[in-house]
Amino acid sequence: MSDIKKVVLAYSGGLDTSVILKWLVDQYQCEVVTFTADIGQGEEVEPARTKAQSLGIKDIFIEDLREEFARDYVFPMFRANAIYEGEYLLGTSIARPLIAKRLVEIARETGADAISHGATGKGNDQVRFELGAYALSPDIKVIAPWREWDLNSRKKLLQYAEKHQIPIEQKTGKKSPYSMDANLLHISYEGGELEDPWCEPNTDMWRWTVTPEQAPDKATYLELTFCKGDIVAIDGKNITPATVMEELNRIGGENGIGRSDIVENRYVGMKSRGCYETPAGTIMLKAHRAIESLTLDREAAHLKDELMPRYAALVYNGYWWSPERTMLQTMIDESQANVNGVVRVKLYKGNVTIVGRKSDADSLFDERIATFEDDEGGYNQQDAEGFIKLNALRLRIAAVRRKDK
């Protein structure tokens, strides 16, 4: 890549990406443009500007992408009820396509030859960033320092930073035991003691949620209004997608909602243990399935459930920009046309319970047919006999054959 003159770096301002910034300048003799995204990680992103300036960077992009992230990525994913391997709500996975998109867009805007990221060669994020980048800009060059350099430990990174006078906050302080990633949807924890799957996480690890034991003794009730499969209001107050997630994270966290401890299968082949806090996502998934149970046709709902694992795997593995994910999304979005109404949820000591759902215009629930009282809805119970016998025909034939043998 000797022709690299300018690189756009996904930059957080932390140890890894600050070292990468200097390494790119030294290794490739190139100009570096930094891009820092606010996707709701809960930390101030502006200090990244000062840090980049101190390292001689002129082109610095710092962008608030919270609404775009919630509206165009998280909400469409939750219309699919996506969950990976039965447990993971895809908090890290769904953030990567947006970052990849902005990286290649900024590369075009600034005339950069390549993009760069701080994902390691062992993880999923390198795949997600790069598949997204190549799908949107097929000729883009990608520099992944963790696959090139020998700075493969925190100690070596700190030595490099000291040698090159890279300012690192608390660089001589105690090493954090966890690798963490946060955005509007979740915060994740990996590494340290968690690398032993038998070891229970330290209670001090969790940042967004109280333990269920410490949650209030009184339940919290919320009414969530859906329009075409998306939550548009909480307790009757219309709010934006990002605000929906911020509010549900806050309220859910206060009630101990959304903790999970998972061993998952990474796309690169290894198993990995991670812990996650996803208060808003846990509430959103439960409530969305509740409103679909009222408004979505049975076979449409069952088809969605059959396709969901494939959709979730596409998101997890980095194929957000693939034609198959786009095709599935079109079908899913079409299914949500009548997914409108209100769901009442009860939050209590780590549990989300559905206690009510209604849809005045789009409910497929007919009380006259479903009732155990007098039949007035046109359902003839005698019809069930023929229905059962027709469906039992193949079973009866097989039973006769077995008896004859």
Please sum up the structure shown.
The protein contains twelve helices and 14 strands. The chain is of the alpha/beta class.
Number of strands: 14
Main pleated sheet:
5 strands, parallel
Q: Which geometry do the CA atoms define?
A: elongated
List segments where confidence is low: pLDDT < 50 over at least 5 consecutive residues: none
CATH homologous superfamily (4th level) name of the largest domain: Argininosuccinate synthetase, chain A, domain 2
Percent range for helical residues? 40-55%
CATH hierarchy: architecture of the largest domain: Alpha-Beta Complex
- Our estimate of the beta-strand percent is 15-25%
Fill in the CATH topology of the largest domain.
Argininosuccinate synthetase, chain A, domain 2
